[in-house]
Amino acid sequence: MEEYFNQFKAETRHIELPSKFTFPFNYTPHPLTILAKEQVKDHLQKSSHWHYSAIANKINGEDKGRMFGVLIVKNSENNIGFLAAVSGNTEYDLGEIKLIPSIYNVNDPNGFYRMGEQDLNHFNHKIKELESSKDYLHLQTRLQDQEKECQRIIDQKRNDLKQAKAERKAKRDLAKQELNSTAFTQLEKQLVRESNLNKQALKSFIKSEEEKISSIKAEIKDFEAQIQTLRTHRKEKSAAIQQQLFDQYNFLNIKGEAKNVRDIFKETSAKVPPAAAGDCAGPKLLQFAFQNQLTPIAMAEFWWGPSPKAEVRKHEFFYPACNSKCKPILGHMLDGLNVEENPMLNTESLDIEMIYDDDDLALINKPSGLLSVPGKDSDDSVFARMSKKYPNATGPLIVHRLDMSTSGLMLIAKTKEIHEQLQKQFLNHTIKKRYIALLDGIIKDNEGTIELPLRVDLDDRPRQVVCSQYGKAAKTEWRVVEQKNNQTLIHFFPITGRTHQLRMHAAHHDGLNTPIVGDELYGKKAQRLCLHAEQIEFIHPKLNQKMTFCEGVDFP
């Protein structure tokens, strides 16, 4: 344990310890975690492996940085120090600072995981060997050629039948005029026999060809049965390895209670742990602390290196713990610790300002920090408050949404009819909205358009990622208002309305590459997210007149 317990090089006696442990999903880094990060950073900059330029120049850009974590702890002698870790199942050494090892080292050549991988590779080799064998490929070619030739002959024979049928009809029509009834009857019987014989000949040919094709398919099926058997065994082996790997991840909490990762995720909607669950920095750090009787004081995670292409990760920025992998695990590990309250749940002091109100609709100014609709952790929302304010309203009330952290103008529909008509205006892009935002930096151009398709990050909801394959089209026009104090005041004009669209288009390196001030997901947490829906223009469905409202904001 001693080699992983790092003492602070800087003076810390003037820094007051927090009264509660960090709420890891929305936090302001404690001064001690900032000092710990700076100490880790010094060693990262000296490392040939972790130096920023070394990561940026990796082949094909496959490794675009990692998430690091620091955990402030107190040992049995009441000394304050910190632990450090990097996310992922890897082992690295930073010299003086030793990173907490993975809970299970999958890279151990003598461990079950690598040994199991060898078995899986053997299955892969055998499957590839069968799939690429000359006999198998020859059979597939024979089948294709046989089916093609068979179809060609059948088509020709059917054309011959059509021509013969036409000729018989011509004979029949001529015979009606030239032959007596007895002779015509005999000719008719002869023509019917010819027709039946031709049809029978075609059926016999088709049957003969089907038998040839079936024979080839049977041989192919033998190969495919062998391949499927190998795939089944590979799947069973892979599942067994995965289960064995999950068995290595038994997480403790401060009460000494251990819980298997499978049991933890059984209680979630996912049911099954996602890949690499337990390999993030946060769980690693807490597990090591509990195993070694160290008392956790505060925790923070920061990104080191260039951002992945699809995501927004800024070099040296602090980030909250991820939701899909860490939230269930940390929910167990933090049980028993005195943890800070989730700041997103403290909404009692937030007031909604009424801007306009009539019998059909209302316009409100939503405060930052209030949900538009009820969420998993809180029922307090614009919808809940409007339902209480307008108990006789017949419509769905919420016409459009703003992110919890975004403030500004929202339309409220009091009837279903008004709701539908306002929704149509949104769909037809006749409602115009303008947002004002404060960016954490200076951008070079004065105006422009951003088009980056977005989808939810399946591993870390509600974060979004840029995805050209599955993302929904997202378009934003923008114009700079003012630049000073190394910040940019900007107007956003969203053409589409995707989740976190403005936040992603501002922060992503293919967008403005400058996050909005206070964006805890894509930038740096501050007093608030400096994004405000300040202007809206729409046609009142009942009054049939254009209405424009503008409500400014003073960002802190």
Provide a quick synopsis of the model.
The chain has 3 domains: 2-103 and 257-341, no CATH class; 127-245; 344-550, Pseudouridine synthase, CATH 3.30.2350. It is α+β, with helices and mostly antiparallel strands and 556 residues long. The chain is extended.
Task: Walk me through the structure.
- This protein is α+β, with helices and mostly antiparallel strands.
- The protein folds into three domains: 2-103 and 257-341, no CATH class; 127-245; 344-550, Pseudouridine synthase (2-Layer Sandwich), CATH 3.30.2350.
- It is 37% helix and 20% strand.
- It is built from eleven helices and 20 strands.
- It has helices at residues 31-46, 52-56, 112-131, 134-178, 181-247, 261-266, 281-291, 326-333, 382-389, 416-427, 501-507, and strands at residues 66-74, 80-86, 93-94, 97-98, 250-252, 258-260, 295-304, 318-319, 353-357, 361-366, 397-398, 407-413, 432-439, 447-451, 454-456, 464-466, 475-484, 487-494, 531-539, 546-550.
- Strands 9, 10, 11, 12, 13, 14, 17, 18, 19 and 20 form a ten-stranded mixed beta sheet that branches.
- α3 (112-131) runs antiparallel to α5, α4 runs antiparallel to α5 (181-247) and α7 (281-291) packs parallel to α8 (326-333).
